[in-house]
Amino acid sequence: MSIMTYPGTHTYTFSTERLLARPLRPDDADVIFALKSDPQVFFWTALIQTSTPEKDFSEAEAWVEERLGSDIYLSFCLEELSGNEHDGDTNGTKPHVIGVCGATNLPEIGYMFRPSAWGKGYATEALQGFIKFYWETFPQGHPSISDADERKYLKAVTGPPEEAPQSAASIRVLNKCGFEYWKEQKEDDNVNSGVVVMLPVWRRWGPNQQANLRLAGSEPPSIDG
């Protein structure tokens, strides 16, 4: 399959102090399988799980194809700039990927990291880097977002911290990156059939809207503050 046939393929990269973010590629299915087959990676407990671990490699391939098949995704794989490890390559030519981040359904963002990368500040660093890249590249919001209001912000969805302890860490990352609680949204529970859960939604305004809010006398959060 040619990478050029995917509308969600892009050539953007960005870097932070310790990470290189490069585009998701069709051959990254092995990385996604390693992440999504590990129950520790998920933000929810089984009680309220809205996504389930991958059971076979084909599901990871489908996940990658979905994100490369639409321009509502803007996905990046994250590599350590100083890393010496390599993934699934006997020649040692494929750098070790510690996680993925980006837009999962614009303007919604998300990220996943290997448990070995937890507790090192990588999630905050990657998300801050993505936010900076996104608004510098798309100051008016991504062109694939048809709703004018949705172009003004980025948002994220987490599990309720009281029922999904791992979500508390994700919420701390979002708060550090300028996201504030916005509202709740309904999601179907994929583990408990017929059960609907309410999940918190967090929002961060873009620079243009932040400026408008300041003029109106409201001080929005900033990742620089």
- Name the helicity range: 25-40%
Helices, by number, come to 5
The biggest beta sheet reads: 5 strands, antiparallel
Roughly how many Å apart are the termini? 45 Å
Low-confidence stretches: 43-50
Strand order across the biggest sheet?
Answer: 1-2-3-4-5
Arithmetic mean pLDDT: 80
Q: Give me the strand/helix succession.
A: EEHHEEEHEHEEH
β-strand number: 8
Which structural class should the secondary elements be placed in? alpha+beta
Radius of gyration: 17 Å
Our estimate of the beta-strand percent is 15-25%
Overall outline: globular
Question: Describe it for me?
Answer:
This protein has 225 residues and is of the alpha+beta class. Helix content is 25%, strand content 24%. It contains 5 helices and 8 strands, in the order ββααβββαβαββα. The strands form 2 sheets. It has a 5-stranded antiparallel β-sheet with strand order 1-2-3-4-5, sandwiched between helices. Helix 1 (29-36) crosses helix 2 (57-68). The protein starts with 13 loop residues before the first strand and ends in a 10-residue tail after the last helix.
